[in-house]
From TrEMBL:
It comes from Halogeometricum rufum. One of its GO terms (molecular function) is ATP binding. Keywords: ATP-binding, Nucleotide-binding. This is MoxR-like ATPase. It comes from the Archaea. InterPro entries: AAA+_ATPase (IPR003593), ATPase_AAA-3 (IPR011703), CbbQ/NirQ/NorQ/GpvN (IPR050764), ChlI/MoxR_AAA_lid (IPR041628), P-loop_NTPase (IPR027417).
């Protein structure tokens, strides 16, 4: 059975033949892959958002489609439609690009709200309705969308319901000077370097096996309480009109289990939800009027919420995990905890 830690390492190493300095983004993309989630990548033009999504998809070797969102795109261009076959005298469903394992939705906010809504059923139910008939999507299924935060002309804000369907929202920042210098050197040596240079390094069965391991990660009741306290703190904050939803709590729990598995642990520790809280919760918050006028960032609200909550201790979690598992906790538990703080 393929464990999540080796799965992520394999994906990261292969993606690193093209990408430089995006390990954190790749880690959280893997977290979503292991939990059946979807990811929104946000960043200014030129920071390789689409390349990251495509490279990640190609390492998986799954069926991959890219949808370039534009204002004139219609829902049927994504989901598909029915066509009349004169030879048979019957209508036949023509499936759209959404029927793929990994769907990269480029510049999602350039599509109209009507077209964006075509993704809702697919992302939540993993199925698509075409002319009254329901069609299941392939397994696994994952949407990776990109968005430019500075270009407002010709764009449409994502409705709260659409944002809430994304398990994680990841910020892709401009790299530091040393990383950008390494990037220039790589492209100087290989001017034609592209995402399709990446090889498939894992299989669908590898992903399924790693998902089982992540699903089995132990979650102590104190960790569940910790997650609920963080989510509640976003709701109680004076900076929010609406805090994180119950779906956010579920996504944070699942993501924490996957992160624990990626770090070689059989149990979740407080560092897991703490590390993922910003990515899972920030994009779901509706800020208060004063917070918006003060240009407060949603991630800052989440960071403040996390600081107000006291986490359970690592030792308590390890002891509880040992008590409920036949094999006990991992022998390298201390090292795993140390690594998770890096």
């Amino acid at each position: 059975m393929v464990d999540p830690e080796s799965l992520y390492t394999t994906i990261r190493d292969e993606a690193g033949t093209v990408l430089i300095g995006n390990e954190q983004v790749l880690e959280e993309l893997t977290v979503s892959l292991l939990t059946g989630g979807h990811v929104l990548l946000e960043g200014v033009p030129g920071v390789a958002k689409t390349t990251i999504a495509e490279v990640f998809a190609r390492t998986l070797g799954l069926d991959f489609q890219r949808i370039q969102m534009t204002p004139d795109l219609m829902p049927a261009d994504i989901t598909g439609t029915t066509i009349y076959r004169e030879a048979t005298g019957e209508f036949e469903a023509k499936r759209g690009p959404i029927f793929s394992n990994v769907v990269v939705v480029d510049e999602i906010n350039r599509a109209t709200p009507k077209t964006q809504s075509a993704l809702l059923e697919a992302m939540q139910e993993e199925q698509v309705t075409i002319e009254g008939s329901t069609h299941p999507l392939p397994e696994p299924f994952m949407v990776v969308a990109t968005m430019n935060p500075i270009d407002m002309e010709g764009t449409f804000a994502l409705p709260e319901a659409q944002r809430d369907r994304f398990q994680l929202k990841l910020d892709v920042d401009i790299p530091e000077r040393e990383l950008e210098d390494a990037l220039l050197e790589r492209f100087d040596e290989n001017p034609d370097l592209r995402a399709d240079w990446v090889r498939q390094v894992v299989t669908a069965s590898d992903i399924a096996a790693a998902r089982e391991v992540a699903d089995d990660a132990y979650v102590d009741p104190s960790i569940r309480s910790y997650i609920l306290d963080i989510v509640q703190a976003t709701r109680d904050s004076s900076d929010t009109a609406h805090g994180a939803s119950p779906r956010a709590s579920i996504h944070l729990l699942a993501a924490s289990k996957a992160r624990a598995a990626i770090y070689g642990r059989e149990y979740v520790i407080p560092d897991d939800p703490k590390a993922l809280a910003g990515s899972v919760l920030a994009h779901r918050l509706v800020l208060s009027t004063d917070a918006e006028l003060g240009d407060l960032k949603p991630r800052t609200v989440v960071e403040d919420a996390v600081r107000t909550v006291t986490p359970p201790t690592h030792d308590e979690i390890r002891s509880a995990a040992a008590a409920v598992s036949d094999g006990g906790c991992p022998t390298d538990g201390d090292d795993a905890v140390e690594r998770s703080d890096e």
